[in-house]
Amino acid sequence: MQLGNMKSALKSLIVRILIFEAKVLLRRKRPKIIAITGSVGKTSTKDAIYAVLKKEVYIRKSQKSFNSELGVPLSVLGLNNAWSNPFLWLKNIIDGAIIAFFSREYPDVLVLEVGVDRPGDMCGITQWILPDVVVLTRLPDVPVHVEYFASPQEVIEEKMELVHALKDDGLLVYNNDDAMIRELVTKLPHQSFGYGTNKQSHFIVSETEIVCDNGKPTGMRALLTHVDQSVPIQLHGVLGTHQLYTCAAAAAVAQHFGMTLQDIARALETYTPPPGRMRLLEGIHDTVIIDDTYNSSPAAAEKALEVLQNVPCAGRRVAVLGDMLELGQYSVREHERIGEIAAQKVQMLVTLGVRSQKTAEAAIAHGMSEKQVLQCENTSQVIEFLTKQVRAGDTVLIKASQGMRAERVVKALLKDPAADSQLLVRQSHTWLHKK
């Protein structure tokens, strides 16, 4: 217990020092800050904005998903996560001081992903981060991380603190397909651009379709419209309309920085969504893998299953669904709800983890045969089953919360396992050696 308290106190001290250094640096350099929050799609949106703006301005983005009280100052300072290495944290503190007080070159624009785990997280960040642009992606009914809040509404209120911290002359970019967000933004005084499939949006995604080659999905294309201009956009190696939302959000931000819609469309050609977010990969035995293993929430799992149902498929639609963590009192209900949805959309369901047993039970209760459902406790069991059972033409969706390490299942099913470091999430030395 004492050791745990010491680690907590040390982490708190490190966070305070890094925040102080980051505040000094921001006061010295005064970059424009684009801050992204929401319950789904933060990292993809951040990466899309960076891809569009990187040739127009001197810009830096958060590494991976650095969005916490620790990740945000690390991103501002341009430092890496030292994980559990005290010597590397000492080096970070020294390097941070040098950067904060003496650096000459610094980006003109920062793109920061900002998340919350517990009450007070966003309030702590907005005490020293005042964004010029805020992007609000989505606020689902039962967001991830709700476990530490009294209700989903409290999570929403916490995330909205970032919007309230927006500078008076700042821009709010928001998901206009989210009815809850639409209601919230009507009460705000800031200039705002909505994006989505809603025809009342400032940036509209329409005519969405899946692109195929020899009967297999290879990506998506759509039409992006702003006022009276429209341009085609295409994403390679990824599925899901919500992925196109990230392009629309990036377009709204880029237009604010003076880019034309045509320039935005050309810039998006270089954008590759980050690993583990509905990425299309080649699997063993001539299968297609939809890798959505970065994380999971009820809203994201439901969307992923909708995509799986609609994707062209010569064989079976197979879903590997792992535990959705940090749902607290909503865990049982939401795992059961996802099982009910899966029963209508897939021909084979494999669950991973204790919580997902409820998913399997609900799927069977709503019409799936017990022969179509397999419950597994760990990734080794999933791998042993799928490597023997998948066959040519099958499309396999793999989705779970980060702690379930479902990327290990994807690696075992890859046609070219040697490409794992480029294709999969959590392939750093630290992650690979975590149990």
Short description:
With 435 residues, the chain is an alpha/beta fold. Helices cover 40% and strands 21% of the residues. The protein is globular.
Provide structural commentary.
The chain is an alpha/beta fold and 435 residues long. It folds into two domains: 7-268, 3-Layer(aba) Sandwich (UDP-N-acetylmuramoyl-L-alanine:D-glutamate ligase); 279-432, Alpha-Beta Complex (Protein-Tyrosine Phosphatase, Chain A), CATH 3.90.190.20. The protein is 40% helix and 21% strand. The protein has helices at residues 2-29, 42-53, 71-77, 86-102, 121-126, 152-164, 179-185, 241-256, 261-268, 298-310, 331-343, 357-365, 379-389, 407-413, 420-423, 429-432, and strands at 32-37, 59-61, 109-113, 133-136, 171-175, 191-196, 203-213, 216-226, 229-236, 279-283, 287-292, 317-322, 348-352, 373-376, 395-399. The strands form two sheets. Strands 2-3-1-4-5-6-7-8-9 form a nine-stranded mixed sheet, sandwiched between helices. Strands 10-11-15-12-13-14 form a six-stranded mixed sheet, with helices on both faces. Helix 11 (331-343) links the parallel strand 12 and strand 13. The longest helix has 28 residues, at 2-29.
